[in-house]
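User: I'm writing a tutorial on reading structure tokens. Could you give me a worked example: one chain, its sequence, then its tokens, then a sentence or two explaining what the tokens reveal?
Assistant: Sure. Here is the example chain.
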Amino acid sequence: MTTAVRRQRCGHILTGKDDDMDEKISSRKTSVGLERQTTANAWISFAADPAQKARCLARLRDAELGPDNQPSDCAAGGKHRFTEELGIPGTLAVIIDVLCWLRQADGKTSAREQAIALLEAIPVGADLGAVPYRYAHWLLHDLQWGITRYCQAEPLLALSAQMRALHDKELAGLAVDDSAWLALGPGAVGAAGETEEGDSQYLENLLGCVAAPLSRIDAEQMGKLCGGAAYFAGEQAKDSYWTDSEQRQLDSLYDDFRASVEQTLGPRPPAQQIAELKAWLRQEQAMDAAWEKKMRRQQRLLWRRWDAWGEKQASLYAAFNEVAVGFLLAQFKLAPRKTVFAPGPQLH
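And here are its predicted structure tokens:
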């Protein structure tokens, strides 16, 4: 798989522009709607049973991860089972999955290794209900990595400050009237007048999507929030490495290649045609590798700059991921605990 394809797919996943990813997040949203708590207004991780945690870890270690086999689904033993099997809010499944694939971007740690480490760090019998709220607050408002730090001009600057004030009150346990949030909803953000193309428009749309109480952020919104924060983290210092004109040049070259693939191989077979799809992908990968080898000879300078930007971007993703995971682990440790199940003596 070429560097162009890898970056293109990574960008789609992080910004929520990938149709398959949208479908996965929508599916996760359905499961969150069916969440079942073991006690009123509280979560109990792994049903306070160390054996249940061991089973989830064993499933994850034995699984083969992939686009249709996310780490959270593997740990739960299937789709739509995360909250029931792990006793953890479904929005945490989105957080774990995004962090795992993002960590893989630097090529040093696999998604499985990251997922196992995160799952191992979750205490047995903990109430993690507040963790997604605090993580969402960090994604939005952290001074170094938060999304709102990119709101550097009015009117989004004022809107982000209002969001921060309301979210801070919420985390402090103070009442916030719904009318305050209605004033900051998608309509208000859209009416603010930020209509530029590219990142500015994306930032406006993202803020409109998550202008809500932290406690009401669902899986779909959490996916967009996680992706948005990671996307902007990976765009820092881009102008020093990679220009818009170079991106357009690479996109044009790759579009021509994709057209030749479809002309040669025909349309990609649907997932139901397993054998045909496998053969098609094998041929596509061979063509892909040959195309990149050819382009690296013909476009040496473009590819050198592309590789340099790729290395820088991977380091940014890794730095963001390290801080994000550290924040998440700290929240796990601070979570209130319940009594952990301890099996009694066996009766004979």
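What the tokens reveal: Residues 131-235 form one domain. DSSP finds 16 helices and no strands in the chain.
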